[in-house]
Amino acid sequence: MNSFWRQLIIQTILRPKRKNTENKEGFSDYELATGHREFLITLKRHLKDIILITAGIFSAAFGFKGFLLTNHFIDGGATGISLLISALTEIPLYILIICVNIPFVILAFNTLGKQFAIKTALAITGLSISLATVTFPNITNDNLLVAIFGGFFLGAGIGLAIRGGSVIDGTEVLAIFLSRKLGTTIGDIIIVINVIIFSAAAYFLSLEIAMYSMITYLSASKTLDFIVEGIEEYTGVTIISSHNEMIRQMIIDKLGRGVTVYNGKQGFGKKGEAKEIDIVYTVITRLELNKLYVETEKIDPDAFIVMNSIRDTKGGMIKKRPLKH
Fold first, then answer.
1. pTM for the full model?
2. Tens of pLDDT along 138-155?
């Protein structure tokens, strides 16, 4: 490790960890090696975020200029507000994108932290610059195609930005803030905001444009879900059974999935005696649920199965391993 990288790692990784301690001496070889590994992980993460946010910016800009702007269609959230004002005034969209999102960036700084707010500000600025400088062809004037594919590219752009640790539409930041203050769900707040936006579109533009804009929003939101949550929808399955070892082996052999076994206590009723039992937990896709049900019933028809949706997974044996033959 040359002196430049050594000093960079010390300044960015190791020294901040010691700022609140009395130990100000030099760093051991182990600390330097650990810091080097942490530095590479951080650098890789930042590069990946930059690529995702950049791809999101260009995808959203293409959705705007290639489809939505020429037909005055809007979307939900902050982008919908910007599009609506742009359709009613002579103010360029690239200026409105920044102005409308400034309050959300400030709110993000206070709610979600400095790093998220900075990345969001840079992403929104990048989108504005792209809208102002990059030329995209007008793909089609068919209203239905504009609504569907405009929403698709816009939703993909927002989803890629979220994957990169930022947003280019600040509505969710507002929804998170209000949900904490009002005790409601984030989804309910977003629905209320979008009802107001589409009602305004129906009044100021036309009912037809408002209805097409709803299609745009549905297309964008479904694309966003696919980008953020993945096409494979994972499900966490907890199985409580006296035949837990057979069920564990079945999941490994017949489904090719990893299994976690943890200890718990089983009991029911007011006088039910609690007894220790091994609990089986696994993560599978929704396409494998039926097979899991069938194979579990073969082993124990009375097995207690609990399922919960999983938004995303990382690490572990998520991908299927080759089955035994």
1. 0.75
2. 888 899 999 999 999 999
